[in-house]
Prior knowledge:
The protein is of the alpha/beta class and 221 residues long. It has a single domain (9-214), classed as 3-Layer(aba) Sandwich (Rossmann fold). The protein is 37% helix and 14% strand. The chain has helices spanning 21-34, 57-68, 79-82, 89-100, 112-116, 124-130, 150-159, 187-195, 206-214; strands at 9-14, 38-43, 74-76, 106-111, 132-136, 175-178. A 6-stranded parallel beta sheet has the order 3-2-1-4-5-6. Strand 1, helix 1 and strand 2 (38-43) form a beta-alpha-beta unit. Helix 4 runs parallel beside helix 6. The protein is globular and about 45 Å long. The structure holds adenosine-5'-triphosphate. Adenosine-5'-triphosphate binds at residues 14-17, 22-23, 26, 110-111, 113-114, 136, 138, 183, 185-188.
Amino acid sequence: xxxxxxxxxxxxxxxxxxxxxxxxxxxxxxxxxxxxxxxxxxxxxxxxxxxxxxxxxxxxxxxxxxxxxxxxxxxxxxxxxxxxxxxxxxxxxxxxxxxxxxxxxxxxxxxxxxxxxxxxxxxxxxxxxxxxxxxxxxxxxxxxxxxxxxxxxxxxxxxxxxxxxxxxxxxxxxxxxxxxxxxxxxxxxxxxxxxxxxxxxxxxxxxxxxxxxxxxxxxxx
Length: 221
Ligand code: ATP
């Protein structure tokens, strides 16, 4: 197979409820560590089993747009939020493959906690053939083969790339890990602080806090 012509593109899915500096540093550092041309943020639609009474998918998307607008290497893909049906990562990757072509190297960015649960994702085996996976370290979630379910551990061992430069040499199929600045920030922690009327400042962009205040989000009442 001939080599992909463009730099690898990072794909970063998440609930982003709300987006915070852990997410933003992950994307920023992935560009540098993995040699990405950019990162496409893909906020998830509202999964049916998850209760988000106050924050709509459109509001989560709005917060991602506000946080990423000033970075020319970031773009936002609203398709999952706009879709009527619940969306999964594999159909999204298939759509992006159609859009970007078979040669484009795609790198799905996931935190270590998300990677540990990958084998429960819809059609996860197909996912590994549609994109590379780059796993970032996250406080409290070691990336260890011994802590992964068997089939994922086998895939990890087989597909692991020793060198991130290899991400540019094939469109999909490899797994890499990368160390990022460790930030023990979670959206859960931020939602709890806000529900208790405590400060969440410096955990997420001021523009997002302003949006949260203006729209009275994450309040307990
Ligand atoms: P919640 O607390 O609601 O579960 P979260 O903070 O984990 O949310 P998500 O939107 O679920 O955020 O995460 C999207 C992606 O970002 C996942 O792959 C997750 O592993 C990663 N991620 C989130 N926070 C961090 C962080 N502080 N460091 C590294 N990766 C992170």
